[in-house]
Design brief:
The chain is mainly alpha-helical and about 300 residues long. It has eleven helices and no strands. It starts with a helix and ends with a helix.
Length: about 300
C-alpha cells in the first residue's frame, strides 16, 4: 500500500512537472510571438507608408528618375521569370538527389561525405553563391548577366534546402510500404514512383516553399552576377519584334528584380523614393505570401488524397 507521505511526494512531483510544462509552454508562445509580431510590425509599417502609392500605374510603369512616375513593371516581371527558372532547376534536381541518397545510394563513407557537404552548403552565405555563379555561369559558360544566370544561382542557393526536405519526407514514410511494394514484385523505381514520391510530396513541397521564399528576397548574389539597378524594358516575348525573338531568347535578357529595385530606391535621399520602396516591399511580401499560399493549398490537396 502506498503511504500517505509517498502519495504526497508523488503529487508534489507531478505538480512541479506541470509547472515546468506550463512555463515552457508560455516561453514557447512568447518566442513565437517575437517572430510573428516583428513580421507584423514591419508589414504594417510598409503598408502604412506605401499602400497609398500602389495603383495600376505603379504596377505597369518602368522605373524613372522622378519618384512620381517610377514603377515596378520590369522588377516584378523579372522576379517572376527568375523564380520560374529557379523552380525549374532546383526542384527536379533537389528531389532527384534526395531520392537517390535515400533509396539508391549505398551507405558508405562517400555517401556520408556527400551528406555532410549538403548540410554544410545550407549554411553558406549567399554572396559565396554569387561569386561562384559569376565565375561559372557568367564567364565560364557564357550565359552573361541574364535571367538564366540569376535563376541558376538561386537554384544552387536553395538546392540544399530542397534536398534535405526531400530526404526527411522520405524517411517519414513507414518501411512497411516499401516492403509491401517489393513483396508484390515492384522494382525500386516503381516503388519510388508509385509510393514514395506520392506519399512524401506534401513534405517535399514544404521544403520547396521554404527555399523559394528565401530565394525571392535574395539581393547579394543577384547583385554579384550583375543585375541592373535601372532597366526600362522587358525581356522579349517569343516570336515578337523585328526580327522575331526566339522561344528562349528571354532567358538571356538583362533583368532586375524587386529586391534590387527596392535597394536602388532606399539608397536615394528623396522621401518619395522611400515611399516607393515601401510600396514595392509590400507587393514583394504579397507575392511571397501568394506563392506560399498556392504551395500550401497544393500540399493540403495532396495530403487529402493520400490513402495509407
Amino acid at each position: 500500500m502506498i503511504q500517505s507521505a509517498d502519495l504526497a511526494a508523488i503529487r508534489a512531483l507531478i505538480a512541479r512537472a506541470k509547472r515546468w510544462d506550463a512555463f515552457f509552454g508560455v516561453l514557447g508562445v512568447l518566442s513565437l510571438m517575437v517572430g510573428v509580431l516583428t513580421f507584423a510590425a514591419l508589414f504594417v509599417d510598409m503598408a502604412v507608408q506605401g499602400i497609398g502609392r500602389i495603383d495600376a500605374d505603379f504596377l505597369t510603369s518602368f522605373p524613372s528618375r522622378r519618384a512620381a512616375n517610377a514603377g515596378i513593371l520590369s522588377a516584378w516581371v523579372g522576379t517572376v521569370l527568375v523564380m520560374f527558372v529557379t523552380a525549374l532547376a532546383a526542384v527536379p534536381l533537389g528531389v532527384a538527389a534526395g531520392v537517390y541518397l535515400e533509396e539508391y545510394a549505398p551507405k558508405n563513407w562517400m555517401t556520408d561525405i556527400i551528406e555532410i557537404n549538403i548540410t554544410n552548403l545550407a549554411g553558406v552565405p549567399s554572396i559565396v553563391y554569387g561569386l561562384l555563379a559569376l565565375g561559372l555561369f557568367v564567364y565560364q559558360f557564357g550565359f552573361g548577366q541574364s535571367i538564366l544566370s540569376a535563376g541558376l544561382t538561386l537554384a544552387l542557393l536553395i538546392l540544399p534546402v530542397v534536398i534535405v526536405a526531400t530526404r526527411e519526407s522520405i524517411r517519414a514514410i513507414p518501411q512497411m510500404i516499401r516492403e509491401g511494394s517489393y513483396a508484390c514484385g515492384a522494382t525500386t523505381w516503381q516503388t519510388v514512383r508509385d509510393h514514395i514520391l506520392p506519399y512524401s510530396s506534401a513534405g517535399i513541397l514544404t521544403g520547396v516553399i521554404i527555399g523559394m521564399a528565401r530565394a525571392i528576397g535574395e539581393t547579394a548574389p543577384i547583385i554579384t552576377i550583375g543585375a541592373l539597378t535601372f532597366i526600362a524594358f522587358l525581356p522579349p516575348l517569343p516570336y515578337t519584334g523585328e526580327p522575331p525573338a526566339g522561344l528562349f531568347d528571354w532567358i538571356f535578357s538583362p533583368f532586375t528584380v524587386m529586391p534590387i529595385q527596392m535597394f536602388n530606391w532606399t539608397s536615394r535621399p528623396e522621401a518619395e523614393f522611400q515611399v516607393n520602396a515601401a510600396a514595392a516591399g509590400f507587393i514583394l511580401v504579397l507575392m511571397t505570401l501568394a506563392m506560399n499560399g498556392a504551395a500550401i493549398w497544393l500540399r493540403y490537396r495532396l495530403r487529402k488524397n493520400i490513402k495509407w
